Automatic annotation (TrEMBL):
GO terms for cellular component: extracellular region; outer membrane-bounded periplasmic space. PANTHER family: ABC TRANSPORTER GLUTAMINE-BINDING PROTEIN GLNH (PTHR30085:SF6), AMINO ACID ABC TRANSPORTER PERMEASE (PTHR30085). This is ABC transporter substrate-binding protein. Pfam families: SBP_bac_3. Keywords: Signal, Transport. Residues 41-261 form the Solute-binding protein family 3/N-terminal domain. It comes from the Bacteria. GO terms for biological process: amino acid transport.
Amino acid sequence: MKMILRRITRIYAGAAFASALLLLSPAAHADRLADIKARGALICATLASNEPLGFSDPQTRQIVGFDVDMCAAVARELGVKMEHRSVTVEARIPELVDGKVDLVSAALGYTRERAQQIDFTASHYQNPIKLIVQSDSGYNLMTDLADKRISANRNSTPEQSVRRVLPKATLLTFPDTPAAFLALAQGKADGLALSMPSGIRFVNESAGRFKFVEGALAWEPTAMGVQKGERALLAEVNRALASMEKAGEIDELWQKWFGPKTKFNIPRDKKLTPIASFR
């Protein structure tokens, strides 16, 4: 009888072990794309205070912008609706890693460090990272700020670029662009590091009070992000982007938000580029 009980115990233990292995196997990994299709919605995160990427329309109070339109277009290509989620620069990667959103399109610059946490789509645009100063500061070149105080969004590529290019500068980091700009406006920082599209409105709307210094800290390939290991979703979003590029839709959206009829007037010189090109 004892022998029979021991055999039964071994059988159940083996079955439990096999079940555990099955749960851990790649085949049993939850398929995010299948989840999106099942719910009929793509949860896409954008910034909410960074014009023209994602910002509050003063009339409708809705979050609008280039990134929002890109999210909606990708969702359409996937055959689902877009469910919008606002995030800060600081929270955009943690929200994705934690599975709270399906896709991030929030001024997400590609870096090798970030690629260890999330997977990047192809880069749909590239922009220079610049420094803004007060026009009467006497600063004209990036090197003029080599040992000065520079504000930037926390955990952003501009912050990383300052650390790399101007290692002797004192970095002051903030949770969002308006806060980083306020530090410059109040004289708490000597320069502000940010991508050119984000910075142009501060320069253009300042009545000459602020300007860009010459040169760029870096050129930032910007892409969308998905949770690490979600290969089916990544492939489908890349397919959607390629389809939109071929149809001229990305250019149309760029013209809508950045073109010559806007206050930004920034050309989209770099087209859709495989992220492997930047590794």
